[in-house]
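README: folding subset

This subset contains proteins for which both the sequence and a predicted structure token string are available. Records are stored as plain text. Below is the entry for phosphoglycerate dehydrogenase (471 residues), shown exactly as it appears on disk.
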Amino acid sequence: MSALIRSVARNVALRRSAASASGRSFSSIEVDHYTSGKRNEGQGGASQPGKYAIQTFNKISPIGLARFPEDIYSVQPAEGAESPAHALLLRSHKLQETEIDVSVRAIARCGAGTNNVPVARMTEIGIPVFNTPGANANAVKELILCGLFLGSRRVVDGINHMKKLGQQGLAKERVEKDKAMFGGRELKGKTLAVVGLGHIGAGAARDATALGMNVQGYDPGLNVESALKLPRDMKLADSIASSVTNADYISLNMPYIKGTPEEGGTHGIIGRDVLAHFKQDAVLLNFARGELVDSSAMKEFLDSGNGRYISDFPDDECWDHPNAILLPHLGASTEEAEDQAAAMAADTIREYIERGNIRNSVNFPTTQLSERGEDIIRISVINKNIPGCLAKITSCIGEMDVNIVQQINQSRGEIAYNVIDLDVKTDHEGKVNLTKLQREITMLDGVLSSRILSGIRGAGYARNIDGDYHV
Ligand SMILES: NC(=O)c1ccc[n+]([C@@H]2O[C@H](COP(=O)([O-])OP(=O)(O)OC[C@H]3O[C@@H](n4cnc5c(N)ncnc54)[C@H](O)[C@@H]3O)[C@@H](O)[C@H]2O)c1
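--- output ---
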């Protein structure tokens, strides 16, 4: 399917009555509503009836893909896909708007950053974008532990020396004499300062305690989830400077935010003023981002004492310093991290597609509504976060004599999201007809889309695109 046809499809309003195929996802009641996601009238390109269609960009870990049960999901690569998608799953592919079918309800990136997804535009048109924060935390934390060992013992220098001696055929002769050059110290009883106590930092703090280290740290935005993982006797400081004072090791685990600390960013946050509080033989572990460290200040620090710098990033000033070890951004490079990210992305999509719940979205509010039994019809509505929208939605429902059993309304920036459970009267054949209600809600001023989560899988999605009704 060409990009042109995809973009034309975005602007063609389509109406089709529900396919006969079954596939109830939430309620046992048969819901009469439109199927959605047809590419074009007469093209016959509907997704497999009764299944949710997931399209992938990039190669996604099979462990992640296995989270989509085959009986209710069809998963296929986006390239060459015959039918439209209900959700997209990607890693590094730079997603273009023309690749996003009118039927797409959600986009998930297997990874933390979402720079390759047009997030602002997706917010504008009401499509949640998900990521997988912390999926690679264990991989990075393990490399930090490796960094602790590399920073305390001259393992790398020793390996290089053995290679040199081996080439000269002198290894056996010289090894016992030369080992004195590579002495080190133990971690047990030393102090680690962890700056940034999120997914990675909290794990590093906990494991360092298990190695017998004393741990202190700093995080101005510490959340409850991370706080619960911290070692009980860990000391929390009120500034970076006080957290690094007296520390033998410092692990940086905060985000990079453009701008200097004075401008509210973290660029060069480890500069001369903070380094002045370092012990002369302190080891800095930077597995967060290269730009957090002011390179020339770091080089001065390394030159002036016997401190060390272990980093997962390139550094123009310190790369060949004898007291620096730089790795080629290996932190998240494990099979398990990729599996974990794909599994998390798949679970997030399922939770949204099947139940309407939102977690780990970068542009939509976290939303969770507990389930209320088989005969309840769940609908979700995405609208612009403007006054009066919620009242209009609920009065639409009330006017149709439909009872709201429970609901949740959350907002984030320009977007508001509603999940509403309805007790809908059935007709004499035991069916409910939500077609009219969905159309009325979707075409309200400010509403971007609505979904009926009960009934035929993959059906029941309607969008209000610039005043046109798309189903
Ligand atoms: N080396 C790698 O391959 C690799 C892989 C993944 C993540 N990372 C880096 O690690 C960082 C941490 O990842 P995470 O998953 O733990 O993120 P996270 O969001 O779970 O945790 C970051 C923590 O830093 C805290 N923080 C923010 N500003 C701070 C400041 N000025 N001082 C101290 N703490 C501050 C936050 O409150 C948060 O608790 C990421 O931002 C990323 O740059 C590197």
